[in-house]
Amino acid sequence: MTGTSESQRSVFRRIARRQHIEWPKYNSTPLYDRTSLGGLESDVRVVSSVWFTHPDHDSIEEFVCELPLAYFRFEAHDCYENSTRYEMDTLFRMFVLKELHGWEHETELLEYLESRTTLCERLELGTVPDQSTLWRTWNKRFTRDLRDTVRTAARTILIKAENADIAVPREPDRNLPTRGHDAAESDPDDQAILNKTGTITKHVSHVVFPAFSLNRGEGCEIPENAYWGLQTYLGLRENLAANEGARSFIHESTRDRTPLGHGHRDQIRNLSIEQIREMYRQAVRQLINQLAETEEFFRAGIVAIDITEADPFTGDRSGHEDEIIGTKEKTDEYAYQWATVQLVGNAVPLVLDARPVRKGESRLEIVEDLLDSAEELVHVDNVLMDREFDSQHVLEMISQRGLSYVVPKRMQTSEKAQAKRLLQRDRDRYETDRKLHLGKNEWHETTLIYRRKEDSEHDDHRQYSVFMTNCGSGHLTEYGYRWEIESGYRSIKRFMAATTSKDFGLRFFYFAFACLLYSIWRAVDLLVQVELTGEYEHSPIVTADNTLTLLKKETGIG
Q: How many C-beta atoms surround the C-beta of residue 494 within 10 A?
């Protein structure tokens, strides 16, 4: 489908509403350096991240033709002193096309352009350059840095288009590109990573931990950092309880006085749930302020909301029935449950907020609460949730906020019947609009998307999954990002101290602090990657253990 003036305006309106985006973006502010290649690369990343989410934008060639370049001054990267027939912005677009297709020689680009009159018109090409002109342009006219920017821009476009389920001419390279001619120089070794991690972890800890306070008053012999140091220490070893950890902490800490296990627990029990949540949000806000100094953090936009549960509770829950509730799988077991909202997708996977789940709380109340927190911290575009959140009232609330959503739907009689018909017709995919009743003659309009699972173990209607969305099928691929939340929960639970206490506040603090340690790890990894390579890839190069080991030094150990 061809984009229109209205679809383009829609894209740039969305960019303009982002609180943390400056577009165009260049290295020097407030007077922009219009020759900055870093700024140009950032603009390609910002615009493409929104462009391909529009249902009318399904062509990478169209994006290359429409990418705004009028503000950029190419003359600083033009090795020719005299004017030529072809403008630099047109040549830039042509070579981005060449890189998108992965062609090694200019001849392939030449043949492609000659066979596409409409494309040449959109590129404002009166005549197609010959092969020698194209070769000289790339090798003699473009600076080396401009050639690198062409490659970076093409890689960004491929990734953003593929993430939006747009057809791409080749698989994008999702590994860090080499910088310069010596690959060895571009790949930081373990010692360089560790050295940089130590510096950044120290800085981050000094920014984040002051957000936590025990409100103990003046004159206390044991400093507060010792408590956070002990809590971090407990997260370094699996299933380590406060009493045992405190005894080991005495020997490993460089402090003269450290908390005892019971004293540590008593201090934390004095904190209310709301105090813990407010401290957590303030710490994450400080963390985001540090990340906001890097343009890579602006990939934020997709959040996932989910509920996780602790290990099944096997003791007597008398008096705690509202807190130790049933499991999500409707078994006869009981467990504490915690809800989180996390950044997912290409963004650094921070846990933006966490809250306990009590008996009787509605999913609408939980989602509203977490979205309020998330939207105070970052710009949110899309919300991903599990099928336990498929309530029409939850979906209507998200739509009323101007956000899009993708949520799997629990199959009822009508969905099962439709899946059976699709199976009989051997159809892999089907879309239909649906109105969900809200009460009082009010309805929520959504789209149901049936999708057949690959390699399903079933031979009946269970081969199909049904999703609800208000943003078109192009966003369905984003739902795959939800797997990151499960992977994050595994790491978070790895960072939790062990306890048999039924104290709800203590239990929640242990979970929230583990979420903070996880978020610090992922934030440090982003900062280290950007510092060492100038790029951010989702797969971490900094280990969680290294980060926690360095954190414990900053809070009083070693």
A: 18
Q: CA nearest 212: which of 195, 200, 225? A: 225
Return d(Cα 216, Cα 396) in angstroms, integer.
44
Q: How far is CA 39 from CA 25, 197, 241, 384, in A?
A: 5, 26, 49, 31
Helix, strand or coil for residue 109? helix
* Residues paired with 431 in a beta bridge: 449
Average pLDDT over every residue of 174-188: 39
pLDDT (0 to 100) of residue 189: 57
Q: How far apart are CA 398 and CA 468, in angstroms?
A: 13
How much is the average pLDDT of 373-388?
A: 90
Which long-range contacts link 165-174 to residues 24+ away (Cβ below 8 Å)? Answer: 165/473, 165/474, 165/476, 165/477, 166/52, 166/57, 166/58, 166/59, 166/60, 166/474, 167/58, 168/60, 168/100, 169/60, 169/100, 169/101, 169/102, 170/100, 170/101, 170/102, 174/537
What 3 state SS string does 267-278 have? HHHCCCHHHHHH
pLDDT at 23: 56
**Burial zone of 96 (CB within 10 Å; 0-12 exposed, 13-18 middle, 19+ buried):** buried
Q: Measure the CA–CA gap between 287 and 463, rounded to whole angstroms.
A: 43
The residue among 510 and 434 whose pLDDT is bigger is 434
Contacts of 147 (CB under 8 A, 6+ apart): 95, 138
Note the pLDDT tens digit of each residue in 258-293.
656 555 566 677 788 998 899 899 889 888 888 887
Higher pLDDT, 234 or 287: 287
CB atoms within 10 A of CB 89: 16
Beta strands in 1-137 (DSSP E): none
Question: Encoding tokens for residue 233?
Answer: 């220490």
Dump pLDDT digits (tens) for 57-76. 888 999 999 888 888 888 88
The token pair that represents 340 in the structure block = 């989180």
